[in-house]
Design goal:
- The complex is a heterodimer of chains A (314) and B (412).
- Chain A is of the alpha/beta class and 314 residues long.
- Helices cover 35% and strands 28% of the residues of chain A.
- Chain A has helices at 45-52, 74-80, 96-106, 111-124, 140-152, 170-184, 197-203, 221-225, 242-249, 272-285, 300-308, and strands at 2-12, 20-30, 34-38, 60-65, 68-69, 81-84, 158-162, 189-194, 206-211, 214-219, 232-238, 255-261, 264-269, 290-296.
- In chain A, the strands form three sheets. Chain A has a six-stranded mixed β-sheet with strand order 6-7-8-3-9-10, sandwiched between helices. A four-stranded antiparallel β-sheet of chain A has the order 2-1-4-5, covered by helices on one side.
- The longest helix of chain A has 15 residues, at 170-184.
- The two termini of chain A are 36 Å apart.
- Chain B folds into two domains: 2-42 and 215-410, no CATH class; 50-205, abc type-2 transporter like fold.
- Chain B has a five-stranded mixed β-sheet, sandwiched between helices.
- In chain B, α8 (218-248) runs antiparallel to α12.
- Classes of the chains: A alpha/beta (314), B alpha/beta (412).
- Chains A and B meet through α2 and α3 of A and α1 and α9 of B.
């Protein structure tokens, strides 16, 4: 059963000539599912989250969250969702506990229920020992944990996480991802946005790939990878004659596609074990020498490259 | 409840903002102390020349070379007194009193029509009274004028007594007495008849406001102006958190919670209002304890404090509703507050206001409030300051109305 149903969601800033940030995006999320929106910066992920959080009014389309429309029943939607914004949105001059108590009140909690829930969340984000410290004294990772904790206070049915690991060290990022996986045990539904392919791959039941405001692919990891078949991604650097060599490689059996990006060639190949010796031979025949070569098995990065002709990190 | 949770959160942040507290509480007290000490440590004061409206209704007496009343006016207009008195002739007694009532003059001197006839006449029972009509808030200026006029009248009385004595001596002697005896008799009459029983007297009248015996100390006048001025800044500091929160993401996050927009903005309004109210209360208590300022009757003090907090809060929110960033709000707000303070008399009080400046003061909400504090410190009650409360209240309501209108559009 879908708890989130997004139908042809559209957002244009300053119409009619403004930027079309989200262009007819549709998807749904089942209860207890982790759904990731994967895409480069500026793809429209945060705008989509903002509309689903009732912060921005859609220019078109609608979404039902827990059976309530984001356009017509925003207050009911807000009771259903917890939002973890991309940037830290806390009061730096207040302690972690004071922040949680304040935000808890904003979610309608009070009295003993508020107090005990704040204690639970502090346990969950492992900040019991530092609960009385001001947030501005915290590390980036600790702030991120409080930032997530705020959204968990009212036990939302749906949790939005907008790039929660941006700008923090890998260890803290790992800790956050583990915490998110733990939330699944509580039956929470999660909408996660990221431009980190590995995170989407690790966390998600299903992934929607967005680019230029459009949903360009949607499915499980396996389904998405199948889009590019079994092609492996090979990047190669040569000592000289890269452009000419790229032309030769396009003729090599098993090579599906060759792109030249700055000083390296990016190839999609079938059966890399068979193709790699042929690439070396071809280079030698052209008087060039391969100085560096990397082989990557099919993944979401390659799916994005395949669909857009650009790398996800661009 | 959420309204108060938001307000309480902001109030706590304000309490932890030490530089902000220094500006809200310490700066006005420090400025009031400095200016108070500079102008006499709390005594009454007049800095500029006292404005005097003079009318001479005296048309002279038969056989007299000049009207004696003109002598009174001429002495007041003497170049030697120009640093002390700024004299203006007006057409009649009504105009002179109106000048004082309107604040165009601090003192009116009205020389009556029969003044010369009494001075030059031979009726020992005749009297004439020069009226000194003064604003009770200009006590030093009034005393100066009273002293000068009193001295002139004493001279006239003495001369009149001396002449009478000399005439009586000649009559008693049946001829011309020796000049030395005439001089001695005249001098004796002069020195004895210049007192209260003399023919020429001063009458004092004032447009009354409450207990006119109260004086406003320099520190009280300065601190009331500073208090209103810094209440504007105090309100701006708290109101600016709306923009700071918008920038830092906590405001959008608040909008993702199941809290109505009106509740969020309402909480901000409450925090601004309560902050400036507390600021005023602290300054009033500090002024009382440190400088022994008598702020006046409690009804007037409460009304003026509430209305000042309302104006400061409303104006701060209006400025915030138009500014895009906290820095922009700070720059625009400071400029507006400074101009209002200069026009409204926060730095000068109402003691020196007259003419065009008095009119300009009344175009600003703070000008009315400061005038209200002046009246309250002189003993005026709620009835005496009704306009000084109602007019700024109108300003406050208008500020709030337009601020809410703009913010609802902005955060819809």
């Amino acid at each position: 059963m879908s708890i989130v149903e997004v139908q042809e969601l559209r957002k244009q800033y300053d119409p009619p000539k403004g930027v079309l940030a989200v262009d007819g995006v549709s998807f749904d999320i089942s209860e207890g599912e982790i759904f990731s929106l994967l895409g480069p910066n500026g793809a429209g992920k945060s705008t989509t989250i903002s509309m689903l959080s009732c912060l921005l009014k859609p220019s078109g389309g609608d979404a039902m969250i827990g059976g309530n429309s984001i356009v017509h029943q925003s207050l009911a939607v807000k009771e259903t969702i917890g939002v973890v914004p991309q940037d830290i949105a806390l009061y730096p001059d207040m302690s972690a506990r004071e922040n949680l108590i304040f935000w808890g009140r904003m979610y309608g909690l009070s009295g003993d229920a508020l107090k005990s829930r704040v204690d639970e969340v502090l346990e969950l984000i492992t900040l019991v020992d530092r609960q009385k410290d001001r947030v501005d004294k915290f590390s980036g990772g600790m702030k991120r944990r409080v930032n997530i904790g705020v959204a968990l206070l009212h036990k939302p049915k749906v949790l939005y996480l907008d790039e929660p690991t941006v700008g923090i060290d890998p260890q803290s990022g790992r800790s956050i991802l583990d915490g998110i996986l733990a939330l699944l045990d509580q039956g929470m539904t999660i909408l996660y946005t990221t431009h980190y392919m590995a995170e989407a791959q690790e966390l998600s039941d299903r992934i929607g790939i967005v680019d230029n405001g459009k949903m360009i692919a949607l499915g499980t990891h396996e389904e998405l990878v199948r889009i590019v078949g079994q092609d492996a991604r090979v990047t190669a650097r040569v000592d000289h004659y890269l452009e000419g060599l790229a032309e030769r490689w396009r003729e090599v059996a098993g090579v599906e596609k060759v792109d030249v990006e700055q000083d390296e060639a990016v190839l999609l190949v079938k059966d890399a074990d068979q193709v790699l010796p042929r690439l070396f031979e071809s280079a030698a025949a052209a008087g060039s020498r391969i100085t560096e070569i990397n082989v990557t098995e099919p993944n979401l990065e390659m799916v994005f490259l395949h669909l857009t002709g650009r790398a996800l990190r661009e | 409840m959420k309204v108060f949770a938001i307000a309480w959160k902001d109030l706590r942040s304000t309490a932890r903002n030490v530089p902000g507290l220094v500006m809200m509480l310490v700066a006005p007290l420090a400025l009031a102390s400095l200016l108070g000490f500079a102008f006499g440590g709390g005594d009454s004061f007049e800095i500029a020349a006292t404005k005097v409206a003079v009318t001479v209704e005296d048309t002279g007496a038969p056989g007299a070379p000049t009207a004696a009343g003109c002598t009174v006016a001429a002495i007041l207009e003497s170049p030697d007194l120009k640093d002390v008195l700024e004299v203006t002739r007006v057409k009649d007694a009504a105009a002179a009193r109106k000048a004082v009532d309107d604040g165009d003059a601090a003192v009116a001197v009205i020389v009556p029509a029969d003044f010369s006839r009494v001075v030059y006449g031979d009726d020992p029972a005749a009297t004439a009274q020069v009226e000194i009509y003064e604003n009770p808030t200009r006590e030093i200026g009034g005393s100066i004028v009273e002293g000068i006029v009193g001295q002139v009248l004493a001279d006239f009385n003495g001369a009149r007594a001396a002449a009478a004595g000399a005439v009586a001596l000649r009559s008693d002697a049946g001829g011309d007495p020796p000049p030395a005896q005439v001089a001695a008799t005249a001098a004796e009459a002069f020195s004895h008849d210049g007192g209260v029983s003399s023919a020429l007297k001063i009458t004092q009248r004032s447009p009354k406001v409450g207990k006119t015996e109260s004086e406003v100390s320099v520190t009280g006048a300065v601190l009331s102006g500073m208090m209103v001025f810094f209440m504007f800044f105090g309100a701006a500091n708290v109101a600016r958190t709306i923009l700071t929160e918008d920038r830092d993401g906590t405001m959008p996050r608040l909008f993702t919670t199941p809290t109505r927009h009106g509740t969020i903005i309402g909480g901000k309004f409450v925090s601004v209002f309560v902050t400036v109210l507390l600021q005023a209360v602290v300054l009033l208590i500090a002024g009382r304890l440190i400088f022994s300022i008598d702020w006046g009757r409690i009804d007037a003090v409460v009304l003026l404090t509430l209305v000042a907090a309302g104006v400061a809060g409303g104006l701060a929110l209006l400025i915030i509703s138009f500014a895009k960033t906290p820095a922009q709000a700070g720059a625009i707000g400071s400029g507006i507050y400074l101009v209002l303070a200069l026009l409204g008399g926060n730095f000068t009080g109402t003691a020196q206001s007259s003419g065009t400046y008095a009119v300009v003061q009344k175009l600003t909400p703070n000008g009315w409030i400061i005038q209200g504090w002046d009246t309250a410190m002189r003993g005026g009650g709620a009835a005496d300051i009704r306009w000084q409360v109602l007019v700024p209240l109108g300003f406050a309501v208008a500020f709030f109305f337009f601020a809410v209108l703009k913010m609802r559009r902005r955060f819809a």
